[in-house]
């Protein structure tokens, strides 16, 4: 969802996570053009001010040969998309594949290196200390840039809505509607990666927690500094599956609400109650849960993670109709969301500490979610990958 923009305008929004079960992409087939670069920073749908900040980052030459903390992923062919597994018939619809996860289609990815865990606060701090980079959430919102994304004549929002801010979760009152995310998300001023709860809050004791309140632009800037890049959505799902075929979760097909916890998510009733049965109410230190078959931590849960790709709810149909094997797909050239075709979003993957079976089941291998690239939230972070040279 275009969360940042909607909050800037104070619009109550109807959402989301339990979304497009019946709102699959159209079957109109659009050509899938090859793309010369993964980064595609020349897209007209990106904010030129933020793109310039990325372009100004100089890759640290001492980092490019460091592979500590990375796992070499052997590429291969796999069935990408939502899995419907026997025994899940009685699960709530929110725990099962959504429309944009279908149809399953055949994908091939090449070998690549992947960070074994989410980028931590300590790692991101090293980047900021070295470069002086200022994240999206730390900047006031540029009205001249913002209005380019809006219908002509849109009035300027109140000045205070343009101050630096990020989205923070709080539990909804029992009985509050689940149809309005403003009941649990607040666009809170002066919240950012190093002040995750606003002025006075800090990262004490959280060096090994995943960095949050970072936008897609921030993730791209960090990746450039360390000589890496963000994963494609296909690389992401291939890695998350950890070598298992057609399973719901990285660990197999065991249900997620039982006593053994394989990932940091939410037990209880989102967005009202969290029983914290898995031991972590919000973020957990990286590596707190078992690795998947490829040796990767927290591919499921903890924080959602940015991918390189634009989100399109009809992309899988386009690949399927094209036929054959999609080799290293890099997402659509232009983002498309069946809920609002004017909003251009990047895909996020893996779910967070807020996901459960009765809301978004983001911890499933195939679950897709999206956000505009300038959005930052308390439950979104990232990890990087690197090509095999
Ligand atoms: Ca938890
Ligand atoms: Ca994660």
Q: Can you give a write-up of this model?
A:
This protein is of the alpha+beta class. The protein has one domain: paralog of FGE (formylglycine-generating enzyme). It is built from seven helices and 14 strands. The strands form five sheets. A four-stranded mixed beta sheet has the order 12-11-9-13. Strands 1-4-14 form a three-stranded antiparallel beta sheet, with no helix packed on it. Helix 2 runs parallel beside helix 5. About 7% of the residues have low confidence. It binds calcium ion (2 copies). The site of one calcium ion (CA) has 7 residues, from loops. One calcium ion binds next to loops.
Low-confidence parts lasting 5 or more residues at pLDDT below 50?
12-37
Q: How far is the N terminus from the C terminus?
A: 36 Å
- Rg value: 19 Å
Number of helices: 7
Give the spatial strand order of the biggest sheet: 12-11-9-13
> How many β-strand runs?
14
CATH domain class: Alpha Beta
Domain module count: 1
CATH topology: paralog of FGE (formylglycine-generating enzyme)
Biggest sheet features: 4 strands, mixed
Q: Assign the CATH architecture.
A: Alpha-Beta Complex
- The arrangement of helices and strands along the chain is HHEEEEHHEEHHEEEHEEEEE
């Amino acid at each position: 969802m275009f969360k940042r923009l909607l909050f800037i305008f104070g619009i109550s929004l109807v959402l989301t996570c339990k979304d497009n079960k019946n709102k699959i992409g159209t079957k109109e087939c659009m050509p899938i053009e090859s793309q010369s670069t993964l980064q595609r920073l020349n897209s007209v749908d990106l904010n030129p001010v933020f793109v310039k900040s990325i372009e100004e980052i100089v890759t640290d030459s001492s980092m490019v040969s460091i592979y500590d903390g990375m796992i070499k992923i052997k590429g291969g062919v796999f069935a990408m998309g939502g899995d419907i597994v026997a025994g899940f018939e009685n699960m709530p619809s929110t725990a099962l594949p959504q429309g944009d996860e279908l149809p399953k289609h055949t994908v091939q990815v090449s070998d690549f290196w992947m960070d074994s865990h989410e980028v931590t606060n300590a790692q991101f701090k090293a980047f900021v200390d070295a470069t002086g980079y200022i994240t999206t959430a730390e900047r006031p919102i540029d009205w001249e840039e913002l209005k380019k994304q809006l219908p002509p004549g849109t009035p300027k929002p109140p000045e205070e809505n343009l101050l630096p801010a990020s989205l923070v979760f709080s539990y909804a009152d029992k009985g509050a509607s689940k149809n309005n995310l403003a009941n649990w998300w607040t666009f809170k001023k002066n919240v950012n990666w190093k002040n995750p709860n606003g002025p006075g809050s800090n990262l004490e004791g959280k060096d090994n927690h995943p960095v949050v309140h970072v936008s897609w632009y921030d993730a791209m800037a960090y990746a450039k500094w360390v000589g890496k890049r963000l994963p494609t959505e296909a690389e992401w799902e291939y890695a998350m599956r950890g070598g298992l075929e057609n399973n719901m979760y990285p660990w197999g097909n065991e249900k997620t609400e039982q006593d053994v916890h394989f990932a940091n998510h939410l037990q209880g009733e989102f967005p009202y109650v969290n029983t914290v049965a898995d031991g972590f109410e919000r973020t957990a230190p990286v590596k707190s849960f078992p690795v998947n078959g490829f040796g990767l931590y927290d591919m499921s849960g903890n924080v959602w993670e940015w991918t390189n790709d634009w989100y399109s709810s009809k992309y899988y149909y386009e690949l399927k109709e094209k036929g054959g094997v999609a080799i290293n797909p890099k997402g659509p050239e232009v983002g498309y969301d069946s809920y609002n075709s004017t909003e251009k979003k990047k895909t996020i993957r893996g779910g967070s500490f807020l996901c459960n079976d009765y809301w978004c089941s983001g911890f499933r291998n195939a679950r897709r979610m999206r956000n505009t690239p300038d959005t930052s939230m308390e439950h979104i972070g990232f990890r990087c990958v690197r090509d095999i040279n």
